[in-house]
Amino acid sequence: MGEEDRVILHGMWASTYVKRVELALKIKGIPFEYVEEDLSNKSALLLKYNPVQKKVPVLVHNGKPICESLVILEYIDETWPSHGLQLLPKDPYERARVRFWAAYIQQLLESMAKLFNPDHKEAQEKALEEMYEKQRILEEGMREFFPEESPNVHPEKLGILDIMIVSTLGAFRAQEEVLGVKTLDPEKNPLLFSWVEALIQLPVVKEIIPPFEKLVSLLQFIKQNGIRF
Questions:
Q1: Residues of the chain with pLDDT under 50
Q2: Cα–Cα distance measured from residue 28 to residue 42, given in angstroms and rounded to the nearest whole number
Q3: Are 26 and 36 in contact, with CB atoms under 8 Å apart?
């Protein structure tokens, strides 16, 4: 890939949103440079490339910035359609179905974030119920994609839903260590659990998963200091 196709990803090592983009680039086989951002002291480049939200991830391709992780995922797939795997189905209806559930997984992540910043015990219980209900609905919805009720994960067939689910729930053990509650219960959600477990065993996924102890320390800091996701 020549200089005219230079790709730079501005991110933060523990960000779920950044991990989505990082994994997509690796799955597609797109060479890229990674720039770690200090979100407590945002760089001039980050503020230049994303002046509206001032957040990561930002993908810079040929000097042009693209923001918002889901937007970036589709940009990657459309910009390099013959490079590596196709992340979205070609059929318009199937693409629409995948987009719907990708957006729903985003809603699940937002529900999970509430667990780290409850105002009181009742608020945490409500957030937990909300997360479990979203997982129940997601479990049922994914049976349309996995009719055998056992996800058959292949490195050469990964797509946006795989990226979304493993970036959201792949660190569930670190989340459970900090929260003291189940964030992915194999008894309640056997399909989601087996899907995530299969994904985190893939070498390409192992490359982007944050170190367990380092992530636990960060999540504890977030929880103890009431930092909003």
A1: 1
A2: 29
A3: no
